C-alpha cells in the first residue's frame, strides 16, 4: 500500500493506493510536519504497518525527515507531481503538452524533451477568489462563492468592450474591458454580482496566462487541474480568454486530486 500527500496552502489532499485502487481524502492544511501526517493517518484509520511508501509534495514537504517508522518518505518536486498527475488523469500520449494547476495560486507546467518544466505562474487563484470575496461580501467558502456567482450578473460591475468602444479588431463586444470599473459610480449591485465579477476576473487572469504560455510553447490544448478551474463561473472566464487565441481547455473528473495522483504515478514509475 502506498500513500501520497499534497500539502497545499488551503487544502491537503491525500491518495491511498491499495492494489491499484485509489481512495482520496481532503483536509484543511496545517503546518507540514510528521505530526500532521500521523493525524491524517489516524483520521482515515490507516495503520502505518500497512504502508510500504509515502510520497509527499507541495508546501514545505522537502523539509520532512526521510522516513516514518521505517517507511521511506519520497519527496517529489511539485512540477513533477503536476505533470505526472495531468498525464495520468488525461492519459496524454503527446510528446509535448501543457498543464495548468489552479489552486491557491496558478502554475503552468510543460512536458517537452521527455521532461517536465515549470513555465511560470501567477499569484492569482483560489486564494485571490476567497480573499477578495471575504473582504467584499464577508464570504470565504468556495462553494458559497460559487453558488452566489451562478445567479449574479458581472455586467453590473464590469465594463464590456462593446460598452466603451465601437470595436477593437475582431474582439467580441461581450469581452471584459475593465473588471469592476462600474463600481466607481454604481450602487445598484448585490453580493451575487460581486461574487460573479470576482470569479470571472480570476478566471480571465488564469485564462490569459494560460493561453500566452500555450502560444509560446506552441500547443493548442491546455489540460487544467486543481479545484479552482472546476468552478463554473471561473471556468467561463478562463474559456473566454482561451477562445481569443483559439486554444482549447480540457477539464476532467478528479482533477482536484491531480497532484497526489501524480505523486502516486511517480512512485509507480520510479521506485
SSE inventory with pairings:
Elements: E1 2-7, E2 11-18, E3 21-28, H1 34-43, E4 53-57, E5 67-68, E6 71-75, H2 78-90, E7 97-102, E8 106-112, E9 115-122, H3 126-137, H4 142-151, E10 159-160, H5 161-164, E11 176-178, H6 191-217, E12 221-225, H7 232-244, E13 248-250, H8 258-270
Parallel strand pairs: 1-4, 4-6, 7-12, 12-13
Antiparallel strand pairs: 1-2, 2-3, 5-6, 7-8, 8-9, 10-11
Helix pairs in contact: 2-8, 3-6, 4-6, 6-7
Could you describe the 3D structure shown?
This protein has 271 residues and is an alpha/beta fold. The protein folds into 2 domains: 2-75, Nucleotidyltransferase, domain 5 (2-Layer Sandwich), CATH 3.30.420.40; 122-255, ATPase, nucleotide binding domain (Nucleotidyltransferase, domain 5, 2-Layer Sandwich), CATH 3.30.420.40. Helix content is 38%, strand content 25%. It has helices at residues 34-43, 78-90, 126-137, 142-151, 161-164, 191-217, 232-244, 258-270, and strands at residues 2-7, 11-18, 21-28, 53-57, 67-68, 71-75, 97-102, 106-112, 115-122, 159-160, 176-178, 221-225, 248-250. The strands form 3 sheets. A 6-stranded mixed beta sheet has the order 3-2-1-4-6-5, with helices on both faces. β1 (2-7) and β2 form a beta hairpin. The longest helix has 27 residues, at 191-217. The model has no long low-confidence stretch (mean pLDDT 94).
Amino acid at each position: 500500500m502506498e500513500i501520497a500527500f499534497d500539502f497545499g496552502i488551503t487544502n491537503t489532499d491525500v491518495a491511498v493506493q491499495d492494489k491499484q485502487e485509489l481512495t482520496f481524502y481532503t483536509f484543511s492544511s496545517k503546518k507540514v510536519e510528521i505530526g500532521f501526517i500521523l493525524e491524517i493517518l489516524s483520521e482515515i484509520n490507516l495503520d502505518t504497518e500497512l504502508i510500504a511508501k509515502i510520497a509527499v509534495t507541495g508546501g514545505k514537504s522537502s523539509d520532512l525527515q526521510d522516513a516514518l517508522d521505517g517507511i521511506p518518505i519520497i519527496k517529489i518536486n511539485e512540477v513533477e507531481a503536476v505533470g505526472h498527475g495531468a498525464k495520468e488523469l488525461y492519459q496524454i500520449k503527446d510528446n509535448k503538452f501543457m498543464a495548468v494547476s489552479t489552486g491557491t495560486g496558478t502554475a503552468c507546467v510543460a512536458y517537452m524533451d521527455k521532461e517536465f518544466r515549470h513555465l511560470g505562474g501567477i499569484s492569482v487563484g483560489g486564494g485571490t477568489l476567497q480573499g477578495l470575496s471575504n473582504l467584499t461580501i464577508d464570504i470565504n467558502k468556495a462553494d458559497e462563492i460559487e453558488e452566489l456567482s451562478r445567479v449574479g450578473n458581472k455586467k453590473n460591475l464590469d465594463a464590456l468592450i462593446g460598452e466603451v468602444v465601437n470595436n477593437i479588431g475582431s474582439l467580441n463586444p461581450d469581452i471584459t474591458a475593465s473588471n469592476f470599473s462600474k463600481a466607481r459610480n454604481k450602487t445598484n449591485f448585490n453580493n451575487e454580482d460581486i461574487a460573479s465579477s470576482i470569479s470571472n476576473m480570476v478566471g480571465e487572469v488564469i485564462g490569459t496566462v494560460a493561453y500566452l504560455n500555450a502560444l509560446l510553447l506552441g500547443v493548442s490544448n491546455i489540460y487544467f487541474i486543481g479545484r479552482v478551474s472546476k468552478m463554473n463561473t471561473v471556468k467561463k472566464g478562463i474559456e473566454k480568454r482561451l477562445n481569443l487565441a483559439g486554444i482549447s481547455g480540457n477539464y476532467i473528473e478528479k482533477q482536484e486530486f491531480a497532484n497526489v495522483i501524480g505523486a502516486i504515478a511517480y512512485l509507480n514509475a520510479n521506485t
